[in-house]
Amino acid sequence: MDNTKIKIKEIFTSIQGEGPYIGEKHLFVRTTRCNLSCKYCDTDFKCDKDSKEYNYDEFYEELKSHDANTVSFTGGEPLLEADFLCEFLRRYKNRLNKKIYLETNGTYPEGLEKIIDYVDIISMDIKLKSATGQDYSPITFGDFLDIARKKEVFAKIIFDENISDDEINKSVNLAKKYGILLVLQPKMPMDSDFCPYEIFEKFYEKYKNVRLIAQMHKFLDIR
Asked: What is the CATH number of domain 5-220?
């Protein structure tokens, strides 16, 4: 892949709908590739005729034209574009004068290592087999957090009624080790009989730095 260009699915402003920065206006930059295939994924991030390529200068001009104080790189998995983002942010972060917010699945520490100096906030997913249909080792997330803890970082856990006590324990142990906030996000749409607060209580009994936050943009019916 040409590291001097980046292929972007879309660029748009909206409120941040997930996590502790919920309600803030962000400029969302959605990349086109992902290394995972989570069964709950509802994002059309894949490359198609609507995607657009940018070189460094074009990308800067596009991002600076939007009125938002934070750029949220999302996807897909933006760390697959780490080579481009590293050079772009080295050149232009100070001129953009915007916070850099990274939304990532936490499975590519090598990519984070390349851009960590230019990132301000990291939203990392802890992927649960019960929700994603795929099994990811806590060791992988630990390797990621060894790098991410240099900056502000929290972990988001998408869950449903199938979450297991073992998954809760492993997530809590990881959060305790790194002292990070856990954001519990119920998978949408929820079963009418499912009470996510009961899961929150299971986490809270073991770890107090935890919040239950749904996807606000879906409740408000905005992007």
From this structure: 3.20.20.70
Q: What is the pLDDT along the chain (223 residues), one digit of tens a residue?
A: 678 999 999 999 999 999 999 999 999 999 999 876 665 565 655 556 689 999 999 999 999 999 999 999 999 999 999 999 999 999 999 999 999 999 999 999 999 999 999 999 999 999 899 988 877 767 789 999 999 999 999 999 999 999 999 999 999 999 999 999 999 999 988 777 899 999 999 999 999 999 999 998 888 888 7
Measure the CA–CA gap between 200 and 205, rounded to whole angstroms: 9
Q: Give the three-class secondary structure for 146.
A: helix
pTM attached to this predicted model: 0.93
- CB 183, CB 48: distance < 8 Å: no
- On whether the CB atoms of residues 71 and 99 are closer than 8 A, the answer is yes
Among the listed residues 57, 71, 61, the one whose alpha carbon sits nearest the alpha carbon of residue 21 = 71
Q: How far apart are CA 203 and CA 211, in angstroms?
A: 9
Q: Is 73 exposed, middle or buried (0-12, 13-18, 19+ CB in 10 A)?
A: buried
Residue 96: strand, helix, or coil: helix
